[in-house]
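2024-03-11 09:14:02 INFO worker-7 job=invfold-0412 stage=load source=structure_tokens
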């Protein structure tokens, strides 16, 4: 098997590159493995590079060394190639997909990752591509966009999301969205909608507490407009993943599992896919069960 390390030099304000490169060099030297280290240039280039390498054939494991956006870029490049496997080496701002592993510290052990077996993982397909963790529309996306603007040498990691939430949530925007589930179509003003494969977003918000990345279903969470003390109380529970069934959630939060879900906006709105923000014009989201194999080191497992 060939081991290809895709290192995002911008991830974690350069911390991912500084941390992982010495570990990678030591591990491959000890292992004697066939390998490449690719220092990415930009988001588009990652997908193209990974696609080219996967198309060459032979078993290959791609190591996404960076944040959730880097994982998504590698995923989109390798998707559809049965010879390709995904390994996660978290080094970004939120690292939310890595939180879907028990014993996630092992994901930073290059030797353990190289020796790891794999487990199947679901993927969500939509008109713009694929998601392995979560798709957010509304206030969650607004917070992610603001965190991207704020992060820098002085504001790092989850602190960027906390600072962004403090700016956005006191005066949240609401978005008029129409959505279809099990043949019923609704249109209403929403605070947010999350379409989840994994459980976490925004640097640790457990917004989809019942999600599993390999159950063949997506978890959809809808939050209707709420303000004041009730919103603050609900926000704390939303962060901890205890909002489902909470008193503050009555009539405000709707949560369900499905294999297909359609969402279309009646206004200008962005979408956040695995931490990366782009414009959204509507889509049908579909689960692709066990669509990719993910490296799971010893002592680790997928939730």
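2024-03-11 09:14:09 INFO worker-7 stage=emit residues=303
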């Amino acid at each position: 098997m060939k081991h290809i390390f895709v290192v995002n030099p911008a991830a974690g304000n350069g911390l991912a590159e500084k941390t992982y490169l010495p570990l990678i060099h030591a591990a491959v030297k000890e292992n004697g493995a066939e390998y490449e280290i690719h220092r990415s240039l930009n988001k588009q280039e990652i997908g193209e590079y990974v696609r080219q390498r996967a198309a060459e054939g032979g078993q290959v494991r791609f190591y996404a060394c960076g944040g959730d956006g880097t994982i998504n870029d590698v995923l989109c490049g390798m998707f559809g190639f049965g010879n390709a496997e995904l390994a996660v080496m978290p080094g970004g701002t939120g690292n939310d997909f890595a939180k879907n592993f028990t014993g996630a510290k092992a994901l930073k052990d290059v030797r353990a990752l190289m020796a790891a077996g794999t487990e199947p993982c679901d993927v969500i397909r939509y008109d713009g591509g694929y998601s392995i963790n979560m798709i957010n529309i509304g206030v969650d996306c607004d917070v992610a966009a603001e965190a991207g603007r704020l992060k820098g040498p002085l504001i790092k990691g989850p602190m960027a999301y906390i600072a962004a939430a403090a700016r956005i949530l006191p005066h949240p925007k609401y978005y008029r969205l129409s959505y279809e589930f099990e043949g019923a179509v609704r249109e209403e003003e929403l605070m947010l909608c999350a379409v989840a494969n994994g459980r976490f977003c925004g640097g640790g918000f457990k917004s989809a507490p019942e999600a599993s990345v390999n159950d063949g279903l997506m978890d959809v969470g809808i939050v209707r407009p709420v303000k004041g003390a009730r919103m603050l109380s609900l926000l704390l529970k939303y962060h901890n993943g205890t909002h489902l069934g909470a008193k503050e959630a009555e009539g405000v939060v709707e949560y369900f599992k499905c294999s297909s879900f359609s969402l279309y906006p009646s206004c200008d709105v962005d979408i956040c896919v695995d931490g990366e923000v782009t414009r959204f014009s509507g889509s049908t989201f579909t689960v692709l069960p066990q669509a990719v194999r993910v490296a799971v080191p010893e002592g680790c497992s997928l939730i």
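2024-03-11 09:14:09 INFO worker-7 stage=report msg="The two ends are 26 Å apart (CA to CA)."
2024-03-11 09:14:10 INFO worker-7 job finished
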